[in-house]
Amino acid sequence: MDQSHAPMLEALADYHRLDRYGFTPPGHRQGRGADERVTEVLGSDPFRSDVLAASGLDDRTSSNHYLADAEDLMAEAVGADQAFFSTCGSSLSVKAAMMAVAGNDPGGLLVGRDSHKSIVAGLIFSRVTPRWITPRWDEDMHFSHPPSPAQVRTAWEQHPDAAGAIVVSPSPYGTCADIAAIADVCHQRDKPLIIDEAWGAHLPFHDDLPTWAMDAGADICVVSVHKMGAGFEQRSVFHVQGDLVDSAHLSACADLLMTTSPNVMIYSALDGWRRQMVEHGTELLGSALSLARRTRGRIDAIDGLNVLEDRLLGKEASHDLDRLQILIDVSDTGATGYQCADWLRSHCRLDVGMADHRRILATLSMADDEATTDRLVHALAEMRSATESFTPAPRIDLPSPNELQLESEMAPAEAFFGPSEMIPADRAAGRIAAEQLTPYPPGIPAVVPGERLDTAVIDYLRTGHAAGMAVPDATDSTLETLRVAAHR
Protein backbone atom coordinates (compact mmCIF):
# COMPACT_ATOMS: atom_id res chain seq x y z
CA MET A 1 0.00 0.00 0.00
CA ASP A 2 1.03 3.60 -0.56
CA GLN A 3 1.89 4.85 2.91
CA SER A 4 2.15 8.43 1.64
CA HIS A 5 -1.66 8.55 1.52
CA ALA A 6 -3.87 9.52 4.46
CA PRO A 7 -7.37 8.58 3.27
CA MET A 8 -9.38 10.19 6.07
CA LEU A 9 -7.34 13.37 6.02
CA GLU A 10 -7.51 13.63 2.25
CA ALA A 11 -11.27 13.02 2.24
CA LEU A 12 -11.76 15.82 4.76
CA ALA A 13 -9.68 18.14 2.58
CA ASP A 14 -11.91 17.24 -0.39
CA TYR A 15 -15.00 17.96 1.69
CA HIS A 16 -13.79 21.53 2.17
CA ARG A 17 -12.52 21.90 -1.39
CA LEU A 18 -15.89 20.86 -2.81
CA ASP A 19 -17.71 23.28 -0.48
CA ARG A 20 -20.10 20.56 0.68
CA TYR A 21 -22.99 21.43 2.98
CA GLY A 22 -25.19 19.02 4.88
CA PHE A 23 -28.66 19.32 6.36
CA THR A 24 -27.50 16.74 8.88
CA PRO A 25 -25.82 16.71 12.26
CA PRO A 26 -23.73 18.30 13.60
CA GLY A 27 -26.09 21.18 14.17
CA HIS A 28 -23.42 23.87 14.36
CA ARG A 29 -23.03 23.59 10.54
CA GLN A 30 -19.23 23.86 10.45
CA GLY A 31 -19.28 26.61 13.05
CA ARG A 32 -22.00 28.83 11.58
CA GLY A 33 -24.10 28.31 14.70
CA ALA A 34 -21.30 28.30 17.25
CA ASP A 35 -21.31 31.05 19.87
CA GLU A 36 -18.59 33.55 19.07
CA ARG A 37 -17.43 33.37 22.69
CA VAL A 38 -16.68 29.71 22.02
CA THR A 39 -14.85 30.30 18.74
CA GLU A 40 -12.80 33.06 20.37
CA VAL A 41 -11.29 30.35 22.57
CA LEU A 42 -11.39 27.31 20.30
CA GLY A 43 -11.12 29.00 16.92
CA SER A 44 -13.35 28.13 13.99
CA ASP A 45 -11.19 25.40 12.43
CA PRO A 46 -12.29 22.62 14.82
CA PHE A 47 -15.89 23.23 13.81
CA ARG A 48 -15.02 23.18 10.11
CA SER A 49 -13.50 19.73 10.56
CA ASP A 50 -16.38 18.38 12.62
CA VAL A 51 -18.47 16.77 9.88
CA LEU A 52 -20.78 13.78 9.82
CA ALA A 53 -18.76 10.62 9.30
CA ALA A 54 -21.61 8.45 8.11
CA SER A 55 -22.88 10.48 5.16
CA GLY A 56 -20.15 11.00 2.70
CA LEU A 57 -16.88 12.87 2.76
CA ASP A 58 -17.08 12.86 -1.03
CA ASP A 59 -19.73 11.82 -3.55
CA ARG A 60 -19.92 8.26 -2.22
CA THR A 61 -22.61 7.29 0.26
CA SER A 62 -20.40 6.49 3.22
CA SER A 63 -17.01 7.32 4.72
CA ASN A 64 -16.53 3.68 5.76
CA HIS A 65 -14.42 3.12 2.64
CA TYR A 66 -11.91 5.75 3.76
CA LEU A 67 -11.85 4.50 7.32
CA ALA A 68 -11.20 0.93 6.14
CA ASP A 69 -8.34 2.15 3.94
CA ALA A 70 -6.86 4.13 6.83
CA GLU A 71 -7.06 1.12 9.13
CA ASP A 72 -5.42 -1.12 6.52
CA LEU A 73 -2.59 1.38 6.14
CA MET A 74 -2.12 1.44 9.92
CA ALA A 75 -1.99 -2.36 10.11
CA GLU A 76 0.61 -2.50 7.36
CA ALA A 77 2.65 0.29 8.95
CA VAL A 78 3.06 -1.57 12.23
CA GLY A 79 3.00 -5.17 11.00
CA ALA A 80 -0.36 -6.25 12.41
CA ASP A 81 -2.90 -8.39 10.58
CA GLN A 82 -5.65 -5.86 11.21
CA ALA A 83 -6.08 -2.51 12.91
CA PHE A 84 -9.26 -0.85 14.18
CA PHE A 85 -9.66 2.81 15.06
CA SER A 86 -11.51 3.55 18.29
CA THR A 87 -13.31 6.72 19.33
CA CYS A 88 -13.24 6.64 23.12
CA GLY A 89 -9.61 6.04 23.90
CA SER A 90 -7.97 2.82 24.97
CA SER A 91 -10.56 2.62 27.74
CA LEU A 92 -13.02 1.51 25.03
CA SER A 93 -10.51 -0.59 23.08
CA VAL A 94 -9.41 -2.63 26.06
CA LYS A 95 -13.02 -3.33 27.04
CA ALA A 96 -13.75 -4.57 23.51
CA ALA A 97 -10.67 -6.82 23.63
CA MET A 98 -11.69 -8.29 26.98
CA MET A 99 -15.23 -8.95 25.78
CA ALA A 100 -14.00 -10.58 22.57
CA VAL A 101 -11.64 -12.92 24.43
CA ALA A 102 -13.51 -13.69 27.64
CA GLY A 103 -17.07 -12.46 27.33
CA ASN A 104 -19.48 -15.01 28.82
CA ASP A 105 -16.59 -17.41 29.53
CA PRO A 106 -16.89 -18.98 33.00
CA GLY A 107 -13.13 -19.45 33.17
CA GLY A 108 -12.56 -15.71 33.46
CA LEU A 109 -9.47 -13.81 32.37
CA LEU A 110 -5.95 -13.64 33.78
CA VAL A 111 -5.47 -9.97 34.70
CA GLY A 112 -2.38 -8.19 36.01
CA ARG A 113 -3.33 -6.64 39.37
CA ASP A 114 -1.37 -3.53 38.34
CA SER A 115 -3.91 -2.88 35.57
CA HIS A 116 -5.41 0.52 34.80
CA LYS A 117 -8.87 1.35 36.09
CA SER A 118 -10.26 1.04 32.55
CA ILE A 119 -9.54 -2.70 32.69
CA VAL A 120 -11.39 -2.98 35.99
CA ALA A 121 -14.24 -1.05 34.39
CA GLY A 122 -14.15 -3.64 31.61
CA LEU A 123 -14.47 -6.42 34.20
CA ILE A 124 -17.51 -4.70 35.67
CA PHE A 125 -19.11 -3.97 32.32
CA SER A 126 -18.51 -7.41 30.79
CA ARG A 127 -19.02 -9.36 34.03
CA VAL A 128 -15.79 -11.23 33.29
CA THR A 129 -14.25 -12.82 36.39
CA PRO A 130 -10.67 -11.66 37.03
CA ARG A 131 -7.99 -14.21 37.85
CA TRP A 132 -5.41 -11.88 39.31
CA ILE A 133 -1.71 -12.03 38.44
CA THR A 134 0.31 -10.51 41.26
CA PRO A 135 2.81 -7.90 40.02
CA ARG A 136 6.40 -7.82 41.18
CA TRP A 137 7.10 -5.41 44.04
CA ASP A 138 10.04 -3.25 45.04
CA GLU A 139 8.99 -2.96 48.66
CA ASP A 140 11.60 -0.33 49.59
CA MET A 141 10.51 1.96 46.77
CA HIS A 142 6.84 1.01 47.13
CA PHE A 143 6.73 0.41 43.40
CA SER A 144 5.19 -2.38 41.32
CA HIS A 145 6.64 -3.89 38.15
CA PRO A 146 4.75 -5.73 35.40
CA PRO A 147 4.33 -9.46 36.06
CA SER A 148 7.07 -11.83 34.98
CA PRO A 149 6.60 -14.80 32.64
CA ALA A 150 6.97 -17.10 35.66
CA GLN A 151 4.12 -15.32 37.45
CA VAL A 152 1.93 -15.63 34.37
CA ARG A 153 2.79 -19.34 34.14
CA THR A 154 1.82 -19.79 37.80
CA ALA A 155 -1.48 -18.01 37.15
CA TRP A 156 -2.21 -20.40 34.27
CA GLU A 157 -1.46 -23.37 36.51
CA GLN A 158 -3.92 -22.03 39.06
CA HIS A 159 -6.58 -21.11 36.49
CA PRO A 160 -6.13 -23.38 33.44
CA ASP A 161 -9.67 -22.69 32.20
CA ALA A 162 -9.17 -18.92 31.84
CA ALA A 163 -10.00 -17.62 28.38
CA GLY A 164 -6.83 -15.58 28.00
CA ALA A 165 -4.56 -13.07 29.72
CA ILE A 166 -4.21 -9.30 29.77
CA VAL A 167 -1.05 -7.46 30.84
CA VAL A 168 -0.24 -3.73 30.91
CA SER A 169 3.06 -2.87 29.20
CA PRO A 170 4.52 -0.25 29.21
CA SER A 171 3.25 0.79 32.61
CA PRO A 172 2.49 4.49 33.14
CA TYR A 173 6.06 4.74 34.46
CA GLY A 174 7.56 3.38 31.21
CA THR A 175 8.49 -0.03 32.64
CA CYS A 176 7.89 -2.98 30.31
CA ALA A 177 7.09 -6.67 30.65
CA ASP A 178 8.86 -9.50 28.82
CA ILE A 179 5.98 -9.75 26.35
CA ALA A 180 7.63 -12.31 24.08
CA ALA A 181 8.14 -14.78 26.93
CA ILE A 182 4.65 -14.13 28.32
CA ALA A 183 3.15 -14.68 24.86
CA ASP A 184 4.99 -18.01 24.65
CA VAL A 185 3.53 -19.05 28.02
CA CYS A 186 0.01 -18.22 26.79
CA HIS A 187 0.43 -19.78 23.37
CA GLN A 188 1.67 -23.05 24.86
CA ARG A 189 -1.91 -23.33 26.10
CA ASP A 190 -3.44 -22.01 22.87
CA LYS A 191 -4.72 -19.00 24.78
CA PRO A 192 -4.52 -15.37 23.55
CA LEU A 193 -2.57 -12.55 25.13
CA ILE A 194 -3.94 -9.00 25.23
CA ILE A 195 -1.44 -6.23 25.84
CA ASP A 196 -2.73 -2.90 27.11
CA GLU A 197 -0.02 -0.83 25.44
CA ALA A 198 -1.78 2.49 25.88
CA TRP A 199 1.58 4.17 26.54
CA GLY A 200 3.30 2.51 23.57
CA ALA A 201 1.87 3.88 20.31
CA HIS A 202 5.36 5.04 19.30
CA LEU A 203 7.13 1.73 19.93
CA PRO A 204 6.84 0.26 16.40
CA PHE A 205 8.67 3.19 14.86
CA HIS A 206 12.16 3.07 16.38
CA ASP A 207 14.47 0.14 17.08
CA ASP A 208 15.88 1.68 20.28
CA LEU A 209 12.48 1.68 21.95
CA PRO A 210 11.15 -1.40 23.78
CA THR A 211 9.78 -4.13 21.53
CA TRP A 212 6.18 -3.47 20.70
CA ALA A 213 3.53 -6.05 21.47
CA MET A 214 2.77 -7.29 17.94
CA ASP A 215 6.45 -7.94 17.24
CA ALA A 216 6.65 -9.80 20.56
CA GLY A 217 3.80 -12.13 19.62
CA ALA A 218 0.78 -10.65 21.41
CA ASP A 219 -2.60 -11.44 19.86
CA ILE A 220 -4.29 -8.10 20.60
CA CYS A 221 -2.54 -4.83 21.31
CA VAL A 222 -4.30 -1.64 22.40
CA VAL A 223 -2.54 1.72 22.00
CA SER A 224 -3.51 5.31 22.84
CA VAL A 225 -2.23 7.55 20.09
CA HIS A 226 -2.75 10.72 22.13
CA LYS A 227 -0.36 9.65 24.90
CA MET A 228 2.95 9.16 23.09
CA GLY A 229 1.89 9.98 19.53
CA ALA A 230 0.42 13.07 17.92
CA GLY A 231 -3.28 12.26 17.84
CA PHE A 232 -6.08 14.05 19.64
CA GLU A 233 -7.28 12.91 23.05
CA GLN A 234 -9.64 9.91 22.94
CA ARG A 235 -7.86 8.43 19.96
CA SER A 236 -6.95 4.74 20.19
CA VAL A 237 -6.12 1.84 17.88
CA PHE A 238 -6.39 -1.84 18.63
CA HIS A 239 -4.40 -4.31 16.56
CA VAL A 240 -4.95 -8.04 16.13
CA GLN A 241 -2.96 -10.89 14.63
CA GLY A 242 -2.98 -14.66 14.48
CA ASP A 243 -5.92 -17.05 14.74
CA LEU A 244 -6.57 -17.16 18.49
CA VAL A 245 -8.91 -14.16 18.36
CA ASP A 246 -11.85 -13.80 15.97
CA SER A 247 -11.22 -10.34 14.51
CA ALA A 248 -14.81 -10.05 13.27
CA HIS A 249 -16.10 -10.72 16.78
CA LEU A 250 -13.57 -8.22 18.17
CA SER A 251 -14.88 -5.59 15.76
CA ALA A 252 -18.46 -6.41 16.76
CA CYS A 253 -17.60 -6.02 20.45
CA ALA A 254 -16.08 -2.62 19.73
CA ASP A 255 -19.19 -1.65 17.78
CA LEU A 256 -21.30 -2.34 20.87
CA LEU A 257 -19.28 0.24 22.80
CA MET A 258 -18.45 2.72 20.05
CA THR A 259 -20.29 5.94 19.42
CA THR A 260 -22.40 6.02 16.26
CA SER A 261 -21.22 9.61 15.74
CA PRO A 262 -17.42 9.33 15.48
CA ASN A 263 -15.41 12.50 15.15
CA VAL A 264 -13.85 12.74 11.69
CA MET A 265 -11.33 15.29 12.93
CA ILE A 266 -9.98 12.75 15.42
CA TYR A 267 -9.89 9.98 12.80
CA SER A 268 -8.08 12.27 10.37
CA ALA A 269 -5.40 13.29 12.86
CA LEU A 270 -4.74 9.62 13.64
CA ASP A 271 -4.47 8.86 9.94
CA GLY A 272 -2.02 11.70 9.45
CA TRP A 273 0.07 10.64 12.45
CA ARG A 274 0.49 7.15 10.98
CA ARG A 275 1.79 8.67 7.75
CA GLN A 276 4.15 10.94 9.69
CA MET A 277 5.58 8.00 11.63
CA VAL A 278 6.11 5.87 8.53
CA GLU A 279 7.89 8.70 6.74
CA HIS A 280 9.75 10.40 9.61
CA GLY A 281 9.27 8.34 12.76
CA THR A 282 12.79 6.98 12.98
CA GLU A 283 14.28 10.45 12.71
CA LEU A 284 11.80 12.13 15.06
CA LEU A 285 11.95 9.46 17.73
CA GLY A 286 15.72 9.13 17.43
CA SER A 287 16.04 12.85 18.17
CA ALA A 288 13.61 12.51 21.06
CA LEU A 289 15.60 9.63 22.57
CA SER A 290 18.84 11.61 22.29
CA LEU A 291 17.17 14.58 23.92
CA ALA A 292 15.78 12.36 26.67
CA ARG A 293 19.21 10.90 27.34
CA ARG A 294 20.70 14.37 27.82
CA THR A 295 17.77 15.56 29.87
CA ARG A 296 17.88 12.55 32.18
CA GLY A 297 21.53 13.30 32.90
CA ARG A 298 20.88 16.98 33.59
CA ILE A 299 18.05 16.22 36.00
CA ASP A 300 20.01 13.50 37.78
CA ALA A 301 22.80 16.03 38.35
CA ILE A 302 20.47 18.20 40.46
CA ASP A 303 21.22 17.53 44.13
CA GLY A 304 18.44 15.55 45.76
CA LEU A 305 16.79 14.45 42.51
CA ASN A 306 17.39 10.90 41.32
CA VAL A 307 16.34 9.77 37.85
CA LEU A 308 15.38 6.13 38.12
CA GLU A 309 16.79 3.73 35.54
CA ASP A 310 18.92 0.81 36.78
CA ARG A 311 16.62 0.36 39.78
CA LEU A 312 13.74 -0.26 37.37
CA LEU A 313 15.50 -3.00 35.40
CA GLY A 314 16.81 -6.44 36.22
CA LYS A 315 15.85 -9.95 37.23
CA GLU A 316 13.33 -8.96 39.89
CA ALA A 317 12.27 -5.75 38.18
CA SER A 318 11.05 -4.82 34.72
CA HIS A 319 12.26 -6.30 31.45
CA ASP A 320 12.76 -3.01 29.62
CA LEU A 321 12.20 0.73 29.95
CA ASP A 322 10.92 3.49 27.70
CA ARG A 323 13.44 6.20 28.46
CA LEU A 324 11.16 8.94 27.19
CA GLN A 325 9.44 8.50 30.55
CA ILE A 326 11.64 10.28 33.11
CA LEU A 327 10.74 9.02 36.59
CA ILE A 328 12.31 11.20 39.27
CA ASP A 329 12.67 10.17 42.92
CA VAL A 330 12.41 13.31 45.09
CA SER A 331 12.48 11.60 48.50
CA ASP A 332 16.01 12.84 49.30
CA THR A 333 14.62 16.39 49.35
CA GLY A 334 12.28 15.52 52.20
CA ALA A 335 9.29 16.46 50.07
CA THR A 336 6.62 14.28 48.55
CA GLY A 337 5.95 14.02 44.86
CA TYR A 338 2.58 15.64 45.50
CA GLN A 339 4.23 18.71 47.01
CA CYS A 340 6.73 18.96 44.16
CA ALA A 341 4.05 18.66 41.49
CA ASP A 342 1.91 21.31 43.18
CA TRP A 343 4.88 23.68 43.47
CA LEU A 344 5.82 23.25 39.80
CA ARG A 345 2.23 23.94 38.74
CA SER A 346 1.85 27.00 40.98
CA HIS A 347 5.24 28.63 40.50
CA CYS A 348 6.42 27.50 37.06
CA ARG A 349 3.12 26.84 35.26
CA LEU A 350 4.49 23.39 34.48
CA ASP A 351 2.55 20.13 34.82
CA VAL A 352 4.11 16.71 35.29
CA GLY A 353 2.50 13.48 34.18
CA MET A 354 2.33 11.80 37.56
CA ALA A 355 3.11 12.32 41.22
CA ASP A 356 3.07 9.94 44.16
CA HIS A 357 4.42 9.88 47.68
CA ARG A 358 8.07 10.06 46.53
CA ARG A 359 8.20 10.51 42.76
CA ILE A 360 7.22 12.73 39.88
CA LEU A 361 7.18 11.76 36.20
CA ALA A 362 8.04 13.90 33.20
CA THR A 363 7.00 12.42 29.85
CA LEU A 364 8.95 13.55 26.78
CA SER A 365 7.73 13.09 23.23
CA MET A 366 8.92 13.73 19.70
CA ALA A 367 7.43 17.23 20.04
CA ASP A 368 9.90 18.31 22.72
CA ASP A 369 13.13 20.16 22.02
CA GLU A 370 15.95 21.95 23.83
CA ALA A 371 13.67 24.85 24.74
CA THR A 372 11.02 22.71 26.41
CA THR A 373 13.51 20.51 28.24
CA ASP A 374 15.49 23.58 29.36
CA ARG A 375 12.28 24.85 30.90
CA LEU A 376 11.78 21.51 32.65
CA VAL A 377 15.33 21.32 34.01
CA HIS A 378 15.36 24.94 35.20
CA ALA A 379 11.98 24.48 36.89
CA LEU A 380 13.18 21.34 38.65
CA ALA A 381 16.31 23.16 39.86
CA GLU A 382 14.14 25.98 41.24
CA MET A 383 11.84 23.45 42.83
CA ARG A 384 14.76 21.72 44.49
CA SER A 385 15.86 24.98 46.06
CA ALA A 386 12.32 25.68 47.19
CA THR A 387 11.96 22.30 48.91
CA GLU A 388 14.21 23.62 51.67
CA SER A 389 11.31 25.80 52.81
CA PHE A 390 8.49 23.30 52.28
CA THR A 391 6.44 22.43 55.31
CA PRO A 392 7.21 18.94 56.62
CA ALA A 393 5.78 16.32 54.30
CA PRO A 394 2.44 14.95 55.48
CA ARG A 395 2.62 11.39 56.75
CA ILE A 396 1.37 8.74 54.33
CA ASP A 397 0.76 5.28 55.74
CA LEU A 398 2.22 2.98 53.10
CA PRO A 399 0.97 -0.61 53.22
CA SER A 400 3.21 -3.57 52.54
CA PRO A 401 2.75 -5.47 49.26
CA ASN A 402 0.93 -8.22 51.16
CA GLU A 403 -1.45 -5.69 52.70
CA LEU A 404 -2.16 -4.25 49.25
CA GLN A 405 -3.20 -7.68 47.95
CA LEU A 406 -6.81 -7.60 49.06
CA GLU A 407 -8.85 -10.78 48.98
CA SER A 408 -11.45 -11.03 46.19
CA GLU A 409 -14.72 -12.11 47.76
CA MET A 410 -17.21 -11.19 45.01
CA ALA A 411 -17.06 -10.64 41.28
CA PRO A 412 -16.46 -6.95 40.51
CA ALA A 413 -19.79 -6.64 38.68
CA GLU A 414 -21.71 -8.33 41.47
CA ALA A 415 -20.28 -5.95 44.06
CA PHE A 416 -20.63 -2.84 41.89
CA PHE A 417 -24.22 -3.43 40.76
CA GLY A 418 -25.47 -5.18 43.89
CA PRO A 419 -27.05 -3.67 47.01
CA SER A 420 -24.65 -1.29 48.74
CA GLU A 421 -24.41 1.26 51.49
CA MET A 422 -22.18 4.14 52.54
CA ILE A 423 -20.48 3.68 55.89
CA PRO A 424 -17.80 5.62 57.80
CA ALA A 425 -14.33 4.74 56.50
CA ASP A 426 -13.10 3.92 60.01
CA ARG A 427 -15.69 1.12 60.16
CA ALA A 428 -15.13 -0.23 56.64
CA ALA A 429 -12.29 -2.68 57.34
CA GLY A 430 -13.55 -6.21 56.79
CA ARG A 431 -16.38 -5.10 54.49
CA ILE A 432 -16.51 -5.79 50.74
CA ALA A 433 -15.89 -2.76 48.52
CA ALA A 434 -18.63 -1.78 46.07
CA GLU A 435 -16.59 0.93 44.31
CA GLN A 436 -13.19 1.44 42.74
CA LEU A 437 -10.70 3.50 44.72
CA THR A 438 -7.93 4.63 42.42
CA PRO A 439 -4.99 6.95 43.08
CA TYR A 440 -4.87 8.95 39.84
CA PRO A 441 -2.53 9.23 38.11
CA PRO A 442 -1.33 6.60 37.37
CA GLY A 443 -4.83 5.14 37.62
CA ILE A 444 -4.09 1.72 39.13
CA PRO A 445 -6.89 0.84 41.56
CA ALA A 446 -5.88 0.27 45.15
CA VAL A 447 -9.33 -1.22 45.68
CA VAL A 448 -11.44 -3.15 43.15
CA PRO A 449 -15.16 -3.78 43.73
CA GLY A 450 -15.56 -7.18 45.34
CA GLU A 451 -12.36 -7.01 47.39
CA ARG A 452 -12.44 -7.12 51.18
CA LEU A 453 -11.12 -3.87 52.60
CA ASP A 454 -8.42 -3.85 55.25
CA THR A 455 -7.25 -1.15 57.63
CA ALA A 456 -3.85 -0.75 55.92
CA VAL A 457 -5.31 0.13 52.50
CA ILE A 458 -7.96 2.42 53.98
CA ASP A 459 -5.32 4.27 55.99
CA TYR A 460 -3.10 4.51 52.89
CA LEU A 461 -5.84 6.09 50.81
CA ARG A 462 -7.01 8.47 53.53
CA THR A 463 -3.54 9.67 54.52
CA GLY A 464 -2.56 9.84 50.86
CA HIS A 465 -5.63 11.92 50.07
CA ALA A 466 -4.77 14.29 52.92
CA ALA A 467 -1.25 14.60 51.48
CA GLY A 468 -2.44 15.46 47.96
CA MET A 469 -3.35 12.13 46.34
CA ALA A 470 -6.34 12.30 43.97
CA VAL A 471 -8.89 9.48 44.22
CA PRO A 472 -11.42 10.67 41.64
CA ASP A 473 -13.65 7.60 41.46
CA ALA A 474 -14.58 7.51 45.16
CA THR A 475 -18.29 8.13 45.74
CA ASP A 476 -17.35 10.37 48.66
CA SER A 477 -14.49 12.56 47.47
CA THR A 478 -13.42 13.22 51.07
CA LEU A 479 -13.01 9.46 51.77
CA GLU A 480 -14.79 10.01 55.07
CA THR A 481 -17.25 7.35 53.96
CA LEU A 482 -16.86 4.39 51.60
CA ARG A 483 -19.34 2.43 49.51
CA VAL A 484 -19.48 -1.23 50.54
CA ALA A 485 -21.67 -4.20 49.65
CA ALA A 486 -24.73 -4.41 51.84
CA HIS A 487 -24.89 -7.25 54.33
CA ARG A 488 -27.09 -10.08 53.08
Question: Could you explain how this protein is built, in words?
Answer:
By secondary structure, this protein is α/β, with parallel strands linked by helices. It folds into 3 domains: 63-275, Type I PLP-dependent aspartate aminotransferase-like (Major domain) (Aspartate Aminotransferase, domain 2); 278-389, Alpha-Beta Complex (Aspartate Aminotransferase, domain 1); 401-485, Orn/Lys/Arg decarboxylase, C-terminal domain (Ornithine Decarboxylase, Chain A, domain 4, Alpha-Beta Complex), CATH 3.90.100.10. It contains 16 helices and 17 strands. It has helices at 7-17, 36-42, 45-48, 64-78, 89-102, 117-126, 149-158, 179-187, 225-228, 247-257, 264-300, 337-348, 370-386, 401-404, 412-417, 455-467, and strands at 82-86, 109-112, 130-133, 136-138, 143-145, 165-168, 175-176, 193-196, 220-224, 236-240, 306-307, 320-321, 325-329, 354-355, 359-363, 420-424, 481-485. The strands form 5 sheets. A 7-stranded mixed beta sheet has the order 1-10-9-8-6-2-3, sandwiched between helices. Strands 11-13-15-14 form a 4-stranded antiparallel beta sheet. Strand 14 and strand 15 form a beta hairpin. The protein is globular. It starts with 6 loop residues before the first helix and ends with a strand. Mean pLDDT is 92; it is low at 55-61.
Estimated helix fraction: 25-40%
General shape:
globular
Determine and state the CATH class of the largest domain: Alpha Beta
Quickly count the helices. Answer: 16
Tally of distinct domains: 3
Structural class: alpha/beta
Total DSSP E strands: 17
Beta-strand residue percentage? 5-15%
Low-pLDDT ranges: 55-61
First CA to last CA: what distance? 60 Å
Report on the biggest sheet.
7 strands, mixed
